[in-house]
Backbone:
């Protein structure tokens, strides 16, 4: 009874969905087939994708029977290929067990905090600008601002930049994100300053107002946690590989291949 109940539970968990000459095709077979399905078919709705997977499994089993009848599974070429696939799948299973599955959310958060703490400070400027075609127009804008005109309202009225409807607001930017002349002027100014002379760039003449300056905040944790997890997995994998290589005897008989392998695996200088 116990064996019967266990078999029944397994059938519910992984039901048989078809048979091919008496050989069971289970739900797990379809799941594996889906993972190796053509990228174009992967875009299909779930029901159609399952049907494509079922078709692929049935076709494979039908032809596999014919291949065995011709003893293609006994050729050296097939055995070599099978061993390569077996090694690769074992590698992937070991990687999943000892690298992917052992990385915890707490470890990812700790690595994120460490990386953030080690990041160099980078200044950001929050600025508005008014862009006009001529230097005289820019000087007229500066004069109007000196008379108390509101910068954002004047930008809406005078600027030729597409962001004029936002009052010329450029948001926060770091060095390297703006044209050099504009950037140099903005980063030299203090919070609340308005440029006293027009700044010429390839786009025309700018009048700049610096709204704020700050140290750039780090990227939000939720935005980069997947990349951080990948970093941890890479490090764990490299440690695993190093330990495996250190305990193994690797001999490369081809001189050219040996030289290339040794160069590629040379320990980085400390």
Residues:
């Amino acid at each position: 009874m116990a064996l019967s109940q266990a078999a029944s539970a397994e059938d519910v968990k992984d039901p048989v969905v078809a048979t091919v000459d008496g050989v069971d095709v289970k739900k797990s077979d379809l799941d594996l087939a889906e993972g190796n399905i053509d990228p174009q078919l992967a875009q299909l709705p779930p029901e159609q994708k399952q049907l494509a997977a079922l078709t692929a499994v049935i076709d494979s089993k039908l032809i596999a029977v014919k291949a065995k009848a011709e003893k293609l599974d006994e050729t050296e070429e097939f055995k070599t290929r099978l061993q390569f696939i077996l090694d690769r799948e074992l590698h992937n299973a070991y990687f999943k067990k000892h690298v992917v599955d052992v990385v915890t959310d707490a470890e990812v958060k700790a690595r994120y905090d460490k990386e953030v703490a080690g990041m160099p400070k980078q200044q950001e400027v929050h600025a508005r600008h008014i862009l006009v075609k001529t230097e005289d127009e820019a000087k007229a804008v500066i004069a109007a601002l000196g008379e108390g005109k509101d910068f954002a309202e004047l930008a809406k009225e005078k600027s030729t930049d597409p962001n004029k409807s936002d009052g010329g607001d450029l948001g926060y930017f770091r060095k390297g994100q703006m044209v050099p002349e504009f950037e140099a002027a903005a980063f030299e100014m203090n919070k609340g300053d308005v440029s006293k002379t027009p700044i010429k760039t390839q786009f025309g003449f700018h009048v700049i107002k610096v709204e704020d300056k700050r140290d750039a905040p780090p990227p939000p944790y939720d935005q980069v946690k997947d990349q951080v997890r990948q970093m941890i997995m890479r490090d764990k994998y490299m440690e695993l590989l190093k330990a495996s290589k250190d305990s193994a005897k690797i001999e490369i008989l081809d001189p050219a291949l040996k030289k290339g392998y040794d160069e590629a695996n040379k320990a980085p200088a400390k």
Notes: Confidence is low (pLDDT under 50) at residues 1-7. The chain has three domains: 2-74, 75-119+224-247, 123-215.
